Amino acid sequence: MTKTTLTAIPSMATTAAAATTTSNHKWQITRDLTLISAPSKHHHYIDKDYTTFSDEFYTSQAQKMSDMMCTQLKVGEDPLEGLMLVDAVQRIGIDYYFQNEIDAILEREYVNFTNSSSRERNYQDLFHVSLSFRLLRQQGYYVPADVFDNFTGKEGKIKQKYAKDTRALMGLYEASQLSIEGEDALEEAGNFSSQLLHTMMRTSLNCNDARVVNNTLKHPYHKSLAKFTAKNFIRDYNGASASKNALQELAKMDFDMSQSVHINELVEISRWWKDLGLAKDLKLARDQPLKWYTWPMAALSDPRLSKQRIELTKPISLIYIIDDIFDLYGTLDELTLFSQAVNRWDFAATEQLPDYMKICFKALYDTTNEIGYNICKEYGWNPVDSLKKAWASLFDAFLVEAKWFASGCVPKAAEYLKNGIVSSGIHVVLVHLFFLLGEGTNKESANIVNANTDIISSVASILRLWDDLGSAKDENQDGHDGSYITCYMEEHQGSSVDVARQEVIKKIMEAWRRLNKECLLPNPFSRTFTKASLNLARIVPLMYSYDENQDLPDLEEHIKSMLAL
After folding, report:
1. pLDDT at residue number 69
2. Is the pTM of this model over 0.85?
3. φ and ψ at 226, to 5 degrees?
4. Tens digit of each residue's pLDDT (9 = 90 or more) over 141-172
5. What are φ and ψ of residue 158, in 5° steps?
6. Lowest-pLDDT choice from 241-250, 254-263, 330-339, 361-370
7. How far apart are CA 192 and CA 172, in angstroms?
8. Region class of 140: left (phi > 0), else alpha (psi between -120 and 50), else beta
9. Which residues neighbour 48 within 8 Å (Cβ) at sequence distance 6 or greater?
10. What is the dihedral of CA 106, 107, 108, 113, to 10 degrees?
11. Euclidean distance between the first and the last CA atom of the chain, given in angstroms as a whole number
12. CA distance 469 to 485
């Protein structure tokens, strides 16, 4: 397809595909390329470098971690110490081993924190209040933002006596990341604490303290992957030496187990991808199974969810490939027929399609039916109808974008974003995940994911808009890249690229506020599903933060860290 007025609009698979062959290799890691391209030739390499943990060993190690955690929690009776340890365990990404202990601590904290007389008596420290607020909101408890009123003055400004308290200001900034719609005062307090911390970095902090503050401002916990920031946190942790040593040992054991699991999952995924044969038949399409696997690796951090990570990688891979077909291969007439075939879920409807589309449809058809069958075998309900509907909606959204491109039409920004939320692919991913986790086991529960779409659309908005920011920078097109930026500038004549980019950032913040609200209790989803949704939003910046060389250095760093490549 020749791009004229409106370039192809990016999806979960960002459309830098004109240079697909180069991008398939540019960001990937040499050691991984060998592994992913031909895993069957390197099984001896895997067996040599990585231990495969038995269920018995895994259980014993997890029990050892749990015993160490329980011991640490019983060391002191100070509630703040317990909260700080919960925070530490979450920040290094091993909280899934201790959820019962964490639940008990935070339930007790919620009772104390929401009792007005108890709060007035025991919560006079800004850091303590900020930490309690954040941990409770992260747990799903609604805590009103007015708990900060005692610490702020007009316009959200911090009272003078806290203005030089680095730990308290960082705690307040972190807490403000969990604001929901209507909590303007909390956001202002977070912004003001950020300003104070930036000033302190320039004027009064030593190098180590400045580094800690900078890491907090760049990667606030709630909007960052714990596994991505864990190394910095452990290095800078100021708890008791016994606690620090225990946390380091726990993190090391978890890393060794997780690394082994992830490497074996990659071998299985690459074998599936090779057997599928789409890379051979679609030479221009992306061939990046490691990058695709990174999404479920981030979303489902618990090593025990291996099967779900493997299965979730499959629809993600197909989203990327189908996106490339719409961008690089199909004419509008072919794409229309392709979309109709998917809506009908009928091989007969592919008769007039070119061979590569028939091959792709077969891969989609077989993979979806196989996933549905396996879910049915495990949970007693086949969700294939829901999966088919999700795919049909994605194809319809892709087709809308193809028609915009073919006509040279630049839609209104709101219209673009509404369709872009669907074409991001997040709906397909989270619908699959919902059933892979066993959350839809009958007709009534299966409808939950379709009846409660706000959590999905919030994540999708974050991805779509970050994608547009990244694509604009990556493609060096001054915003003219078939993105929200293009649509906004066309709609608001005279607006600069910088103004349009600021509007995108504002929209991302609004989407985060909606997502924060959807994660509060009560909600119809499991903790695992909710956390996975948050983690998908958290990994988005890594996926779309290009440097001046059009590489993804943060993503590479994360993969190297997780897989020791």
Report:
1. 61
2. yes
3. -60, -40
4. 999 999 999 898 776 688 889 999 999 999 99
5. -70, 140
6. 241-250
7. 10
8. left
9. none
10. 80
11. 37
12. 8
